[in-house]
Design a protein that fits this description.
Chain lengths: 331, 694
């Protein structure tokens, strides 16, 4: 039996202190993914620093209109919060599209961002996986990869990031608030997760010992038409085959602001910067949307069994874009 | 009141114990000195063990011993070679048990299992099934004597000359039973006597297997399975857990528990083998079948030959002068397949009933009318008259309830709505069984029979059968089941449990009534008991072809944006003899239809071509339908009075619900979209690809 230390932190300072004094430690919040990975033998922490009781369980509106979401706010509470439902419906929808009711009641905002891929090779210590065991190879490339990534892959890893919430946050231009040994900093959600390149063992840009303390939802995106749509194998409790989050404003028939992100396609929430650039300032029209999305997805490099993700992602994006920004009625 | 027990919607007798947690399952028997064992799975696909270093495992604190093929007690050779565990160094497939670590705690056993080092000589492997595989052979019989083929007339010529032809191949993936309760066994030896608590669909059979393996008389073995959390065929015979527990208990002299982790189940306890079904249907222009050819290709393991007999039902359903049913089996280096709910019927009827829908399309004929037009007056393959057959009535009643003839395909924005129908059938099986019935001085009655309640409500329905036979109120009947010390009974499988056990119970009760009629004065202190045994009669040849029939209707919504298929309505109508308990029967039908929905849309295991096991090892990746997938299911039945069955007049109901459901859903998807998908499950990747190819 593997034993490990357990430390219950009362403050973020205490948590970071405990983490840095326990080599091999992991932060524990809802535990919905970490505990599973410990049971599988994928994670073998020497210490769990329990951050679930830190005073980070509230939403607060900052003077500049930013909505600050504490890292331990539960997924179900975040999805149901009136300000989120009102100002950021894409976030509420994404959260409710994820996991199951039971899991959402336990899973936290910070933990959701840090969940690991559900690649079956990653979860099976009996098989090669560069993310779990750098240098051991990628089992999915020659194996079963229908659920795997088509964008931003590397020869070392084709895993996808499983979060729905993070896709919405990326489209909203949200920022992750971090506290660590070197103090506090914030990182764009879109830059927080990494592509695998030759270091697939690193999911994010988080630094050693850093703790997510919150997520900042910008005032600029508040109230903008937004939506999340996810395609999955069953109606509930399944990860995205592909998903899309869209935040869009149209002024005078032209796109004045747009955030577009895909889930289920890449090692991170895929911020569609190419498509966004092609849309900004252009007429809100189906043909424009299609060209922009095609431009983005032209970078896809599917494997033999996951090519369907490209047309699926295209359909999802066009469906949500045209729904949120319908062509103006003819005069 | 007494005469109304059968058919009434009586509640499960053990319901309260189950929902309050009082009911104990196989891994919940706490024996003094209990040790825990964990199997070490082979990490290679095919090969031979060249060395096992158990030192690091034995050094783990709490580890008692490590059993391997080098030191494990010898077993007699079993009929089922998947039970020849730790007997030789051969590795036939990935996940095969190569060592067993026994420890004081489950945690120590697991740490020990992780520490065992095994080296192998490996050999090339082949786990990929394909029609025309050079390793295929055609068995004449399979699975213990079932015929694996049938032929009459000149099918090839008749097909070639047919006015209307359909020649299509349908494909089903490996599927896993995944009952809620994983396989588990606790075994203890006491002065040469073996007692086992296990999760099984039939403990009399498990006892026989253990007696053979350990060369111990059956009367020195007791196997108990008081409550079983589902099986769906995966607990239909002794599986590795029970053998390993008994082996380790004998070796250590302590009670030992083996629990199979969910992730290890796919390679260890069986699966439904994948199938390719080539259907060739030839018909006249007015829709009469002139040829039916069903050619199945499926796999088995090198250890145990099990054939998914997907073609058999094609000899039951429709009149045709020319019929050919053939199975091609390919031994691959895969885990051993086994029974899964409606083995053969579910896969084969998916193919046949989809092909019939294609034929109806070709003919421009209503699919119900096509089926009615080909209604046989005798069983086409066997030639016997049916004991009863009310398929047409099921189709008509279902059409009425579903409002079939008023459904038109339509669109709700990007969502396409369609409807589909398929027929279902399942054979009537029955096996010999013994039972006792006793009248006690307090006015109650005790029924003893080693039936298994795998969640179906066996205790309850057997009490109903007894109450009716004895003409007493239901609450005066107790039933003792789930213990091999009780009168010997067959497995809860093949939809035959209630018929088999019930026949014996009914007969025992009838005899008891006779005895009581002769008795005068008060009953003796221990009551009066009688025994019945249906051997020789239950298994006697029957001059009738006996099958249950049903009709399934589905309404689906296909989202053209995502390729997602969601079922809006499922409706089944069954002709299955007399329904003995309206509540538990409905539960069986609805459960079967839900499993059929999973087979159609969400469930599938993927054999990993590189690693030789299944990619889906948990219930997050193996998608059984969630509640949100199952919006509206109705199960109905028609009254069927069949005197050629058993004293209750019942046919089996546990499996027919799954049989027609996948085809009904697939046919509805075709109706909605115009695309004919021939590979299950109908997941968004496949559906979207088909939609884009239109």
């Amino acid at each position: 039996m593997r034993s490990f230390d357990y430390v219950r932190a009362r403050t973020a300072e205490e948590a970071v202190e405990a983490f840095t004094t326990h080599p091999g430690a992991r932060y524990l919040a809802g535990g919905t993914n970490l505990v599973d990975l410990m049971k599988l033998g994928v994670e073998r922490p020497t210490a769990l620093i329990d951050v679930s009781r830190l005073p980070l369980d509230r939403l607060e509106e900052l003077p500049d209109g930013t909505l600050r979401v504490g890292a331990t706010v539960r997924n179900s509470d975040l999805a149901a919060h009136p300000l989120v439902r009102d100002r950021y419906p894409v976030l509420s929808q994404a959260l409710l599209a994820g996991a199951s009711g039971q899991l959402r009641n336990v899973a936290t905002t910070g933990g959701n961002l840090l969940q690991r891929t559900r690649c079956t090779y990653f979860q099976d210590p009996g098989k090669p996986c560069n993310k779990r065991e750098p240098g051991s190879g990628c089992g999915a490339l020659a194996g079963v990869h229908r659920d795997h990534a088509v964008l931003g892959t590397s020869p070392h890893c084709v895993a996808t990031h499983p979060s729905d919430m993070a896709v919405a946050l990326a489209a909203l231009d949200a920022r992750v608030e971090l506290y660590g040994p070197e103090g506090t900093r914030t990182v764009d959600v879109s830059d927080f997760h990494r592509l695998p390149e030759d270091r697939p063992e690193r999911d994010t840009e988080i630094r050693h010992g850093e703790l997510i303390t919150g997520v900042l939802l910008p005032a600029a995106a508040a109230g903008a038409p937004s939506a999340y749509r996810k395609a999955r194998d069953r109606a509930s409790y399944a990860f995205a085959l592909a998903s899309v989050a869209v935040v869009i404003r149209v002024a005078g028939g032209r796109v004045s602001r747009v955030g577009l992100a895909f889930g289920g396609l890449a090692h991170r929430p895929w911020r569609a910067r190419v498509a966004e650039a092609a849309l900004l300032g252009e007429p809100a029209a189906a043909g424009v949307f299609a060209s922009a999305v095609d431009l983005e997805l032209a970078a896809a490099r599917p494997l033999p069994d996951n090519a369907y993700k490209v047309p699926l992602a295209r359909n999802l994006a066009l469906d949500v874009l045209t729904r949120l920004a319908p062509a103006p009625a003819p005069l | 009141m007494a005469r109304t027990a059968l058919g009434a919607p009586v509640e499960r007798r053990e319901g309260l114990a189950k929902v309050t947690g009082a009911a104990r399952y196989a891994a919940e028997h706490h024996l003094s000195g209990l040790a825990h064992a964990r199997a070490v799975p082979a990490g290679v696909i095919r090969g031979r063990i060249t060395g096992i270093d158990t030192g690091p495992a034995r050094a783990v604190p709490g580890v008692l011993t490590v059993l391997t093929h080098e030191n494990a007690p010898r077993l007699a050779e079993p009929d089922d070679a998947t039970l020849a565990l730790l007997q030789n160094p051969d590795v036939p497939h990935r996940g095969w048990c190569v060592a067993l670590v026994v420890a004081e705690t489950p945690e120590a056993a697991r740490a020990g299992a992780d520490a065992v080092r095994v080296s192998y000589d490996t050999a090339d492997h082949d786990v990929v099934l394909a029609p025309g595989h050079p390793g295929a052979h055609e068995p004449e019989e399979a699975n213990g004597g079932q015929p694996a083929g049938h032929r009459h007339g000149d099918p090839e010529s008749a097909f070639a000359q047919a006015a209307v032809r359909v020649d299509v191949t349908y494909r089903t993936p490996p599927l896993h039973n995944h009952p809620m309760e994983p396989h588990a066994s606790t075994a203890t030896w006491d002065r040469g006597r073996l007692t086992v608590y296990t999760s099984s669909q039939g403990t009399s059979d498990v006892r026989s297997v253990l007696a053979g393996l350990f060369a111990v008389p059956v009367d020195r073995i007791t196997v108990r399975a008081e409550h079983v959390g589902g099986g769906f065929g995966s607990k239909g015979s002794a599986r590795p857990d029970v053998v390993l527990a008994a082996l380790a208990a004998r070796h250590t002299g302590r009670p030992v528990r083996v629990t199979w982790p969910r992730r290890r189940m796919p390679t260890a306890v069986g699966h439904r083998a994948p199938t390719y079904s080539r259907l060739r249907l030839g018909a006249t222009s007015d829709g009469r079948l002139t040829a039916l050819l069903h050619d199945v290709t499926t796999h088995t393991s090198p250890v145990r030959s099990f054939v998914e007999l997907a073609g058999t039902t094609s000899g039951v359903m429709y009149a045709t002068p020319n019929l050919d049913v053939v199975h091609h089996v390919v031994p691959l280096d895969v885990p051993s397949p086994s029974w899964m709910r409606a083995p053969g019927e579910a896969t084969g009827m998916y193919a046949l009933e989809s092909a019939m829908d294609e034929l109806a399309d070709e003919l421009g004929m209503d699919p119900i009318e096509l089926r009615i037009r080909n209604e046989p007056d005798r069983e086409p393959a066997g030639g016997l008259p049916f004991s009863s057959r009310h398929l047409v009535e099921c189709l008509r009643e279902g059409a009425r309830r579903f409002d079939w003839h008023h459904h038109v395909r339509h669109a709700e924005g990007p969502v396409l709505i369609g409807t589909g129908v398929a027929a279902a059938t399942y054979p009537v099986m029955v096996s010999p069984c013994a039972a006792t019935a006793a009248a006690l001085p307090d006015g109650t009655f005790e029924i003893r029979v080693n039936a298994s309640d795998i969640g179906t409500g066996a205790r309850t329905v057997l009490a109903q059968i007894a109450a009716d036979a004895l003409a007493v109120p239901l609450d005066r009947v107790r039933t003792e089941i789930g213990d091999s010390d009780l009168p010997q009974a067959p497995v809860a499988g093949g939809s035959s449990g209630t018929a088999s056990w019930g026949s014996a119970v009914h007969e025992a009760c009838a005899r008891l009534l006779n005895r009581l009629a002769d008795h005068t004065g008060p009953l003796p202190e221990h009551g009066i008991g009688v025994r019945a045994d249906t051997s020789g009669r239950a298994d006697a040849d029957c001059p009738y072809a006996r099958h249950a029939f049903g009709a399934h209707f589905a309404e689906v919504a296909v989202d053209t944006v995502t390729g997602e298929v969601r079922v809006r309505r499922l409706l089944g109508v069954y002709a299955a003899g007399r329904i003995l308990n309206a509540r538990t029967a409905r539960s069986q039908f609805v459960g079967g239809m839900t499993m059929g929905l999973g087979m159609a849309l969400t469930e599938g295991s993927t054999l990993d071509p590189a690693f030789g096991d299944f990619a889906e090892a948990d219930l997050a990746s193996y998608h059984v339908p969630a509640h949100a997938d199952v919006p509206d299911i109705e199960a109905h039945w028609i009254d069927e009075d069949d005197p050629h069955l058993n004293p209750m007049g019942s046919k089996g109901i546990g499996e027919i619900g799954i049989v027609g459901t996948p085809a009904a859903i697939g046919n509805a998807v075709h109706h909605a979209t115009g695309s004919r998908l021939r590979t299950l499950p109908l997941t968004p990747d496949r559906v979207l690809t088909a939609l884009n190819a239109r």
